[in-house]
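Chapter summary example.
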Amino acid sequence: MNPLLLETINDLPPLPKTVMELQEYVDSSGADLEISKVVAIISKDPLLIGELLRLANSPFYGFSHQVSTIQQVVSLLGISNIKNVVLANSIRSNFSIDVSPYGLDTGVFLANCSNEVDFISTWLQEEDKALSNELVPCAMLLRLGMILLANMLLKSGKAKEFLTENQTNNFQNVSELENQYCGIDHVAFLGFLFDHWKFDERLIQSITHIENPHASSSEIKKNAYALAVTNCLFEPYNPLSSFNSKKAIALVNEATNQGVDFNMGNFLTKLPQAAKDNLMKDD
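The structure predicted for these 283 residues follows.
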């Protein structure tokens, strides 16, 4: 592995004590998990309580009533989802973000990241709420691999060289350029990071198959396709473009042919307005 990449991994900030305690309890307890013990661990951290209540009352989860206690949050989302959300939220808040090596505006990039989480929850909330809840942590971190590779390029002094070559290639084949400069592409790196932080195996496999969902096991095929569709639709260089929207629609059709139960009518209805407008212009 690229020494700079190893350094990037070794320099990852440690998880907060409460998050590590929660992760250890959930991973070691098997079938003997108790909601009361999860609540007790979370209750030690007022900042985490506030963040979980904020997330629970956000559009990501679409609960029909106000959630006011951690007991309610854990009961509504389930212990496994709580662990993954706590992990994802903690990780996401730990990084300074500068994606200029990719030729992207960081503010626009972050807005796109937020829109990805909104979309996956809006799309799946009524159709498959359990899947929506499970995939929110993945959507929250979908571009983390790109963020960390950008940091690595900046630290190594290769950011300008990478950007120049990226521009010369008209921002095509970015993954090949990442492999050339970093020894790994941002999607593969994200899968590695999910394993490094000990996310649930289902989420690790879902991320790992984001570019080849057809090759995933039947147990996580719907997860992989949902993430692949979202990844395609919000591709950082041309989010919600007609081309990427058509690719996303093709992926939903492919998923259906693979035996995955997606409602195409619901998907088209929940497409962001910008995607609908771009598709209309192309017709």
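To summarize the output: The domain at 3-96+105-282 is CATH 1.10.3210.10 (Hypothetical protein af1432).
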